[in-house]
Specification:
Blueprint (H helix, E strand, L loop, with lengths): L4 E6 L9 E7 L2 E7 L12 H7 L14 E3 L8 E3 L2 H19 L4 E5 L6 H5 L1 H8 L2 E4 L6 H11 L16 E5 L3 H4 L1 H10 L3 E5 L5 H4 L3 E3 L6 H14 L5 H7 E2 L5 H4 L4 H8 L3 H13 L2 E5 L9 H8 L1 H6 L8 E3 L10 H5 L9 E4 L3 H6 L6 E5 L3 H4 L3 H8 L5 E6 L11 E4 L8 E3 L6 E5 L12 H11 L11 H12 L5 H7 L1 E3 L20 E2 L3 H5 L19 E4 L15 H7 L3 E5 H6 L7 E5 L4 E9 L6 E3 L36 E6 L6
Parallel strand pairs: 6-7, 6-15, 7-14, 8-9, 8-12, 9-10, 11-21, 12-13, 15-16, 16-17, 22-26, 23-25
Antiparallel strand pairs: 1-2, 2-3, 4-5, 4-17, 18-19, 19-20, 22-27, 23-26, 24-25, 24-27
Helix pairs in contact: 2-20, 5-14, 9-12, 9-13, 9-14, 12-13
The structure holds ligand MGD (2 copies), iron/sulfur cluster and molybdenum atom.
């Protein structure tokens, strides 16, 4: 028997884990894709969804788009004919040239996000869009921008979080508004399970990470800022405030303390629904420290998500839990790798002032013929993932909106394109992956040829640049040169070949300690709890002890976080995953359901001012009263309703960063028997 060949690579999904992958090949054919046993974080396993999808849809020629396609049906119908790359690129180039000459680059809109997070396939195409001066739909506005803005303004950066390896020095890990059991499954399974400190989880949903915690606080959604104030009230009362640290390293604390007086644990209980005794316990354990604070992305997808983050961010700053081992906060650890994003994306190629819009304004922007003459969707399944699903679909039907979509699969979004270009998957080209949890750099190694005629994103844009007649060398830099430069910048001392052999390396042998030099890149050089900068930007000077009002008139707060079986909308078409996810469902608290004369298994409809969604009801004790839980990411076109949860998402902006407040959406519920179609 031929020896098996094993190739180490890395999962580049938008996931904290960035797992090491082993591709097992026999006689040149991929036999299976599995976890790399040598990888320190995932230790030989992949999550369930990737195990299925990487051995399913991702390598299935019947599921993949294999050729460039030209639309022959109506927009949205999904009827196409195959064309060759030359015709496809010729068509796109001539249309873009017309638009550039007629109305300028800013009327070409491009939207991209987390289809893949590998460095080149995520970043290199931006060189092309900068060159044409396209309008970018700011990717983070659909995900995590409010949190970024709040932390940047408070600490000077949101990207340099605690190093998970420093958990060995922490007496407490507080996981606030993140669900590692779904969104970081190996961090849940190994990192948290093995951490010596006490685990405190704060989440309206009692998910598996919450169930395994030492202390679990279940707030009503949108009440977290109030909870932070109640925790700080106890911390102060117990003498656990680090006055020396505050004086040396922060500004504005004195503007917050008067408000703390009334924020007793009993007040906290009334506002958040969490028993006062639990607030006390959590505050004392966190305050004693050393403590790590994991700020989840779900936490800030609120209409006041920026204020929530500012309030939570006071905890490390006032207890001295910064700049030492076992302490700090983590949001998205994108820093510490020395990668120059300007090198990757070449913003200097932009001929004018870069233009961007929020995802919350995307549908409206596309309705305007003047501002949007052409649309590029790449790494982004907008019909499934964006707010205002009905309105967006309507805008995408515009015959005069020349639309190009680049994807591996025929999604709801590619169905609206004039030209579809087939993207190669991560097993089919070399790249680099930086985890946004661990301080690592990993090789994504080509393990098989691209399927059909598909090409990596970066090669598609090199070829398109050539067809457009562009000459800037940045647009044509090849993958090997890019990889060499990126690895040189990182300073890890390995070339791509050497990195491929080991798969993943840490940027340092010891845990990184952010802010160890007490240097904060804010106007004052200190942590800005309250400051002029906030005021000048139109925000309250200091964080506020706010809590959202409870929905009225029997409405429910809709939460639509990560599903353990889907990766945003990725995998929604994989047959085995569809078996797991079954019928589209909504989970309600048992008492909530009974009080509305609804029972487990009932056919129900969620509806509000922007849409309606038929679902099957599940009742559970893990969801609090007043909340409806519908995981994100199903493919609309594969459900009878041809919609997913974003049909209910009104696209309201959060208070900071024009960002998503999807977890603030409210809905009504009724039995499907009562509805008239
Ligand atoms: N209701 C609700 N909606 C949400 C959220 C929520 O919490 N609730 N969360 C939001 C968040 S946090 C995010 S980040 C967004 C994510 O939303 P999206 O960016 O749409 O994420 P995905 O669906 O994972 O990926 C988009 C597409 O990229 C494709 N793709 C994968 N690899 C490649 C590649 O190499 N090249 C190309 N061209 N395409 C590729 C995939 O097949 C997929 O169709 O969704 C948001 N939507
Ligand atoms: N399996 C899987 N993994 C994923 C993804 C996926 O779709 N599927 N998506 C990836 C992406 S793009 C992202 S951004 C990350 C997101 O991963 P996380 O940071 O874990 O964020 P979410 O899954 O959106 O939400 C996390 C938790 O926030 C809670 N939450 C909602 N509202 C509130 C609130 O008001 N207060 C508090 N305290 N908690 C609240 C939700 O109940 C949920 O349990 O996951 C990534 N990983
Ligand atoms: S999606 Fe996340 S958990 Fe699953 S294999 Fe990829 S990195 Fe690992
Ligand atoms: Mo995200």
């Amino acid at each position: 028997m031929d020896a098996l060949e094993k190739i180490k690579t890395t999962c580049p999904r938008d996931c904290y884990d960035a797992c090491g992958v082993l591709v097992v090949k026999e006689r040149g054919h991929v036999l299976k894709v599995m976890g790399d046993p040598d990888h320190p974080h995932n230790r030989g396993t992949l999550c369930g969804k990737c195990t299925l999808a990487y051995n399913g849809a991702w390598r299935d020629p019947d599921a993949r788009i294999l050729d460039p396609l030209k639309r022959i049906g109506l927009k949205g119908e999904g009827r196409f004919e195959r064309i060759c790359w030359d015709e496809a690129l010729e068509t796109v180039a001539s249309k873009l040239t017309d638009v550039l000459e007629g109305s300028g680059g800013s009327s070409i809109v491009h939207t991209h996000y987390t289809g893949t997070f590998s460095l080149m396939a995520y970043g290199f195409p931006l060189r092309f869009f900068n060159r044409i001066g396209a309008t970018e739909v700011d990717p983070d506005t659909v995900c995590n921008k409010a949190g970024h803005v709040a932390l940047e303004m408070t600490y000077g950066t949101s990207l340099d979080g605690f190093d998970p390896r420093s958990a060995s020095d922490a007496a407490c890990i507080m996981v606030w508004g993140a669900n590692p059991s779904a969104s970081a499954p190996h961090a849940h399974r190994y990192w948290l399970a093995e951490a010596p400190g006490k685990i405190i989880v704060i989440d309206p949903i009692r998910h598996a990470t919450a169930a395994a915690a030492d202390i679990y606080l279940q707030p009503y959604p949108g009440t977290d800022a109030a909870l932070a104030f109640a925790l700080l009230h106890v911390i102060k009362r117990e003498g656990l405030i680090d006055k020396e640290f505050i004086t040396a390293n922060t500004v504005g604390w004195d503007e917050v303390t008067p408000a703390l007086v009334d924020c007793t644990p009993e007040w906290g209980e009334k506002v958040t629904g969490i028993p006062a005794s639990l607030i006390e316990q959590a505050a004392i354990i966190y305050g004693r420290g050393p403590s790590l604070l994991w700020l989840g992305q779900g936490l800030q997808r609120q209409s006041t998500g920026g204020n929530v983050f500012r309030a939570c961010a006071m905890l490390p700053a006032t207890t001295g839990n910064i700049g030492k081992p076992g302490a700090g906060f983590l949001y998205l650890n994108c820093g510490g790798r020395n990668i120059d994003s300007d090198y990757v994306m070449s913003p200097h190629l932009n001929p004018g002032v870069p233009k961007s819009i929020s995802h919350m304004d995307f549908a409206a922007h596309l309705e305007n013929v003047e501002s949007s003459r052409a649309l590029f969707c790449w790494n982004n399944n907008i019909v499934a993932s964006c707010p205002q699903q009905n309105r967006l679909r309507q805008a995408l039907k515009r015959e005069d909106l020349f639309t190009v979509a680049i994807d591996l699969f025929a999604t709801d979004t590619t169905d609206y394109a004039d030209i579809v270009l087939p993207a190669a998957g991560f097993l089919e080209f070399d790249d680099l992956v930086c985890s946004y949890f661990n301080y690592t750099i990993s090789a994504q190694v080509k393990a098989m040829e691209p399927m059909g005629e598909s090409l990596p994103n970066q090669e598609i844009f090199r070829r398109l640049a050539e067809k457009m007649g562009f000459t800037e060398p940045e647009l044509f830099e090849n993958d090997n040169d890019l990889l060499d430069s990126l690895l040189r910048q990182s300073g890890i001392g390995l070339d791509f070949n050497a990195l491929s052999k080991v798969g993943t390396v840490y940027v340092s042998s010891f845990p990184v300690v952010p802010f160890a030099d007490a240097n904060f890149a804010t106007p004052s050089g200190k942590i800005e709890i309250a400051s002029d900068a906030f005021e000048a930007a139109g925000f309250p000077r200091a964080p506020q002890p706010w809590a959202d009002e409870r929905p009225r008139g029997g409405r429910l707060r809709l939460l639509s976080p990560a599903s353990p079986w889907l990766m945003n909308s990725s995998y929604g078409n994989d047959a085995k995953i569809r078996n797991r996810t079954g019928q589209a469902d909504v989970t309600l608290n048992i008492d909530e359901a009974h009080s509305r004369s609804l029972s487990d298994g009932d056919a129900v409809v969620l509806f509000n001012e922007v849409g309606r969604l038929p679902l099957r009801l599940i009742v559970s004790e893990h969801v609090p009263r007043g909340v409806a839980l519908v995981p994100k990411g199903r493919w609309p076109k594969l459900d009878p309703s041809r919609a997913n949860v974003n049909v209910l998402n009104n696209g309201r902006k959060s208070d900071m960063g024009e960002s998503s407040s999807v977890h603030s959406v409210e809905v009504e519920i009724m039995s499907a028997d009562k509805t008239v179609d």
